[in-house]
Amino acid sequence: MRLNVKPTLVIALTGLSLLATACTGGTPTATTSSTDAATSTTAAPVTMTLWHNGTGDKGPAYWEQVVKDFNAVNPNVTINITIVQNEDFDGKLQTAMAADQTPDIFLQRGGGKLADQVAAGKVADITSAIDPTVKSQIGGGFATDSIDGKIYAMPMSIQPEGFWYSQDLFKAAGITATPTTMAELSDAVTKLQASGVYGIAIGAKDAWPAAHWFYQFALRQCTQQEVQNLATGGMKDPCWLAALQSLADFNATKPWNDGFLTTVGQQGAGSSSGLVANHKAGMELMGAWDPGVIGGLTPDKQNLPDLGFFPFPAVDGGKGDPSALMAGSDAWSCSNKAPQPACTDFLNFLGQTAQQQGYATAFSTIPANPTASSVITDPATKAAADALGNSAYTLLWFDSALGQDQGNGINQAVVDLLAGNVDPAGALKAMQTALNGG
Predict the structure, then answer these.
(1) Could you tell me which of 45, 169, 379, 402 has the fewest CB atoms within 10 Å of its CB?
(2) Across 185-195, average pLDDT
(3) Is the dihedral of CA 384, 206, 184, 178 positive or negative?
(4) pLDDT category, 113, cuts 50, 70, 90?
């Protein structure tokens, strides 16, 4: 149960003008070094646990290095790292919290998931402990990890969602421009399939990659206010059913990879990301972590050189702004029982320019601190950053905004729709039941 906590669906974009400047050639001034504000005032030896979801080679290597760098100036602080597969992370974290075994430092999704943790008293309020320079630089980037004016996590990346596609496969299929309407997207799928590859890869077995399709259709069909009222409005506006009908209609064109209902999202060459990485599918809908995931699944473990990005197309008759985006934010929290000030000192270390640059490089993503954005050199990631800077508004993933139980209910209803187990009206009813705690 939530106790007077107010998560937000809106991702504040303060500082994105700086990000856009950096991506087009200018560079915001970085006023912190790799060791500024890094020294903990903890005198006695301290041991902490850190859970992250980075897999492959680059992600784990980043965390090992950043812990090593922090330890170099804080020899009294030991941090033990645990890697948890992304699709297992939320469930394992919830189990650990229920058993009062919360890791000291852990990945934070924000929104309703954070609200549940705050209500349960499992996450530390770090508002007063944030380094003033870091706080000023990240600015509005703290919005997703704030509740009732208090900050509970250090943001590391901003992850706008759109299509990550193979420019080589598009060219081979005769597609000369990225789609801006659903009709153009369907035409691109037809051409890709005719060329001998899958049109769109999707890993519906993990539920959330499929559910993001519904999020996008809702973003286009509904007004900003209606989507922001998702948790309290009961999904009674006709736009929600229209979004589900749009998805059902698109699903009927069979745009996906074979066996999409049993395909996972990001693990192995047979995943949806793996299909794009190995030129078996033309594109997939994902957040801005995807270049790094795809890069880890190519034969040479390098980023896909022909990867491109374009936003979700406009939907005819939709009430939402066609430039609006869905996005998420990777951040890190301290548990309520984490040793202090060692834990918040480590979070401040993560917020500095050098660590944000390292994170953005390792995960091929967009840093939350604009002073680190000069490391964005990948054209696809730059395109995603540009779309983010030009969006009329940017909203958090529905499952993150709603919390674990309600979010999972929404996601499962989408999978059932794609599987043909329910029609759009049935899927909407299941979502409304989930919102009501059923």
Answers:
(1) 45
(2) 98
(3) positive
(4) confident
For 243, half-sphere exposure in the C-beta direction (CA atoms, 13 angstrom radius) is 27
Q: Is 101 exposed, middle or buried (0-12, 13-18, 19+ CB in 10 A)?
A: exposed
Using an 8 Å Cβ cutoff, are 367 and 157 in contact?
yes
Report yes or no: 326 and 161 within 8 Å, Cβ to Cβ. Answer: yes
The rounded Cα 128 to chain-centroid distance in angstroms is 26
pLDDT at residue 38 in the model: 57
Nearest alpha-carbon partner for 214 in 17, 12, 410: 410
Is residue 281 within 8 A of residue 275, CB to CB? The reply is yes
Residue 218, token pair as written in the block: 């809702």
Answer yes or no: are the C-beta atoms of 102 and 122 closer than 8 Å.
yes
Tens digit of each residue's pLDDT (9 = 90 or more) over 138-167: 988 898 899 999 999 999 999 999 999 999
> Which 3 state secondary structure label does DSSP give 31?
coil
Q: What is the reported pTM?
A: 0.86
Rounded Cα distance between 11 and 370, Å, is 15
* Angle (CA) 344 346 347, round 5°: 60
In the structure encoding, which two tokens stand for residue 386, read together? 């540009």
Which one, of 251, 254, 244, 188, lies nearest residue 216 by Cα? 244
Tokens, residue 279: 């030129």
Instruction: Quickly state the pLDDT bin for 349 (edges 50, 70, 90).
Output: very high
Give dist(CA 399, CA 303) in Å, integer: 28
Q: Is 113 helix (H, G, I), strand (E, B) or coil?
A: helix
Q: Which residues pair with 108 in a beta bridge?
A: 331
Q: How far apart are CA 282 and CA 303, in angstroms?
A: 16
